[in-house]
Each structure stands twice: as structure tokens, then as C-alpha cells.
Task: inverse folding
């Protein structure tokens, strides 16, 4: 045999060995990739289930531990996790959540806890190719922390557009005014006993008054008893003033309710926060009428200048909105703006609404359409719930 033939056979042998090694490596990588992908999907699915279980658990914190465990078991079961299986390990911990440090501290007894941590380990993740390499299965785990957000008491003034355009119909067959009244009532129903509520209304001017005296009107003072405000909301009608939408007058009337608080309240204790002050302004149109009062400065001392006022002054409607919004926010009062329908002056209203420290803007728009009434109701309910609802924090 020639030397060349010997070398050729050696090369062929080496290539076969190398190919076998490469095939094993490729198959191993494919197996690893398939199993790793399966683990990732399983982990994502488990995290979603644990998040849902933790939110269900915190809703039962006002009841008892048995209700918490039942809620966790039911939510995990709905998502395909049988808590009676030896593969599923569920741990429920009660504790406290520090809003500043964002740290959960376990160990509190049930009655003093304000947060719950749910941890789940699933040891039953099957391996497709793992047995080839000695792995019969895998484990994935997930945890979630939920808390009842801080119960900061709130003073809320709802300001409702009463212009004639509020008689326009919505998809449920009721007018914008009727749906707004239902939504505002739903918001009030969500408030805590520690919250106070007041009411103001606006359009352009009141036919029964001199237009330079009132363009928006306070209706009820801030009060723990919500009945007066609920009764007044129920009495409202579109065209309560007249045609035209003077949003600045509404903001000024809402601020009037805040400033005329008959019983300003301090914090409940030396370590408690001041009540949160909120104006919820609802309008269905552009601000198409000027505020006849001179506009205030933007700062916290910007108030209505003393009269008498010049006859028929011409002030920019958009400038009036901006100025009254700014002087309201400068006092630490947060403004939620809710607009309804296609004619809403959205860009101006976004600027009028508060933007919080996290960059969240408190502007809510409800489009015309098949779900307009439901969406309007949900917006007001969400504002009413505010920060006292359950929250997934980790």
C-alpha cells in the first residue's frame, strides 16, 4: 500500500471521529436549547400564575388566613398548578412592605401584616432531551409580593361640565350627563370613610347671576358625609348654566371648594402624611369660552384678584386654563382631567393635568364608541380606588 493511500485512510478515519464528536455536540446544543427554552416558557407561565395568586391573596387579608390560602390555591389551580402535587411547593409569608426602600420584611403576624409574599417552586418540569445527559427534569420558581397601598386620606373635589353638549347620547342610550353622574357616583362609592368629597360645576356663566361673579360654581363643601354631594350629583342636568365650556371656570370653582374648606384637617398623628388633595375635572368639549376674571399668577398665591372687574374683558380661554391649573398644582393639589368625546381639547388638558414624580400624567380620555359608557365608569372608579387598592410591588 502506498504512503498516499495510508494517509488518505487516516484522514477519513479522523474525519469520521471528528464528525461524530461534532454531531454529539450539535445534538447536545439542540437538546440544551430545547430544554432551556421549555424552562423559560415554564418560568414565565409560573410567574404569571404567582402574580395572580398574590393579588387574590392580598384581597383576603381583611378576612382570615384560611381565606388567603383558599384564594392562592384556587388561582394556582385555575392556571394549571395542582397544589396537592408533591412537585408543587407553595410558601405564603405575611409581613410588611416599606414603600421607601421597597423591601419586604417577613415575620409579622397575620393581623398586623400589610403585605404578602407568595413563593412557588415547580419541580415537575419535564426534560425533552435531558435524560440523554442524566437530567430527568428541572425546577422553576417564582415569587410575588403584594401590598395594600398606604391609606393616605384624601380630599377630592369633583368638577363636572354642565354645558348643553352634555345632553349628547352615548352607546348605552343615556346622555353624557347621565353617564357622568353614574360614573361620579361610582367614584364616590369607592372612597374610604377617611376621605372627604366636595362638588363644583361649570359651563360658561349662570343666567341667574352677573357673569363676572360666577362662571363656575361650588356646590358642596368638603365633607366626610358623602350624602350631600351624592344628592347634588343626582340633581345635575345638562344646560345647568348655559351653552359654552369654560374649563378655567371649573378649575377655579374646584379650587374655591378647596380653599373654603370649613374644617381643614392636619395629619392624624405626628408620623402620618397630610391628606392628599385632588380635583377631578370632567369635560366633554374644548374650552371655547374665556374665563372673564383676570387670570392668576402661576404660583401658590395666585388667587382671584379683587373686583370690581372691567366690563366685558377678553381673556384667552387656553391661557385661563393653564394659569388656573398651574396655581392649583402649585398648592400641591393634584388634578385629574377626564375628557369625553372627539371634540375634547386633549393637548391643553394633558398640560392641565398633574404629572407625578414617576412621569405618570393624570389625563384620561374616553373615546366615543361602543364601550364609551363602560370606559367612563371605569375611569372614575379607578380614580376613586386610588392608592388604597391592592398592588403588585415585586
Result:
Amino acid at each position: 500500500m502506498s504512503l498516499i493511500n495510508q494517509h488518505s485512510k487516516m484522514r477519513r478515519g479522523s474525519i469520521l471521529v471528528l464528525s461524530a464528536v461534532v454531531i454529539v455536540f450539535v445534538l447536545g446544543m439542540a437538546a440544551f436549547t430545547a430544554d432551556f427554552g421549555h424552562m423559560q416558557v415554564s418560568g414565565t407561565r409560573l410567574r404569571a400564575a404567582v402574580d395572580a395568586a398574590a393579588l387574590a391573596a392580598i384581597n383576603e387579608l381583611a378576612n382570615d388566613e384560611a381565606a388567603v390560602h383558599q384564594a392562592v390555591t384556587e388561582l394556582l389551580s385555575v392556571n394549571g398548578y395542582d397544589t396537592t402535587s408533591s412537585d408543587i411547593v407553595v410558601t405564603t409569608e405575611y409581613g410588611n412592605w416599606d414603600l421607601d426602600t421597597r423591601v419586604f420584611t417577613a415575620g409579622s403576624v397575620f393581623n398586623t401584616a400589610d403585605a404578602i409574599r407568595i413563593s412557588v417552586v415547580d419541580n415537575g418540569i419535564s426534560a425533552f432531551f435531558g435524560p440523554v445527559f442524566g437530567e430527568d427534569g428541572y425546577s422553576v420558581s417564582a415569587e410575588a409580593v403584594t401590598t395594600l397601598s398606604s391609606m393616605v386620606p384624601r380630599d377630592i373635589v369633583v368638577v363636572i361640565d354642565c354645558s348643553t353638549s352634555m345632553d349628547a347620547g352615548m352607546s348605552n342610550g343615556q346622555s353624557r350627563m347621565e353617564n357622568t353622574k353614574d360614573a361620579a357616583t361610582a367614584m364616590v362609592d369607592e372612597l374610604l370613610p377617611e376621605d372627604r368629597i366636595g362638588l363644583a360645576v361649570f359651563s360658561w356663566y349662570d343666567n341667574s347671576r352677573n357673569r363676572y361673579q360666577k362662571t363656575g360654581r361650588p356646590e358642596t363643601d368638603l365633607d366626610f358625609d358623602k350624602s350631600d354631594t351624592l344628592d347634588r350629583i343626582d340633581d345635575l342636568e345638562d344646560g345647568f348654566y348655559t351653552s359654552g365650556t369654560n374649563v378655567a371656570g371649573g378649575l377655579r370653582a374646584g379650587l374655591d371648594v378647596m380653599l373654603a374648606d370649613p374644617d381643614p384637617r392636619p395629619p392624624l398623628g405626628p408620623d402620618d402624611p397630610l391628606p392628599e388633595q385632588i380635583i377631578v375635572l370632567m369635560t366633554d368639549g374644548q374650552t371655547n369660552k374665556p374665563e372673564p376674571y383676570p387670570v392668576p399668577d402661576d404660583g401658590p398665591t395666585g388667587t382671584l384678584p379683587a373686583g370690581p372687574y372691567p366690563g366685558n374683558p377678553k381673556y384667552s380661554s387656553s391661557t385661563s386654563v393653564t394659569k388656573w391649573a398651574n396655581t392649583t398644582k402649585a398648592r400641591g393639589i393634584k388634578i385629574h382631567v377626564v375628557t369625553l368625546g372627539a371634540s375634547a381639547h386633549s393637548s391643553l388638558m394633558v398640560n392641565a393635568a398633574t404629572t407625578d414624580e414617576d412621569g405618570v400624567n393624570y389625563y384620561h380620555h374616553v373615546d366615543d364608541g361602543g364601550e364609551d359608557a363602560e370606559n367612563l365608569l371605569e375611569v372614575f372608579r379607578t380614580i376613586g380606588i386610588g392608592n388604597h387598592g391592592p398592588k403588585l410591588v415585586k
Remarks:
- The two ends are 74 Å apart (CA to CA).
- Residues 20 and 26 are 10 Å apart (CA to CA).
- The chain has two domains: 11-148, 154-389.
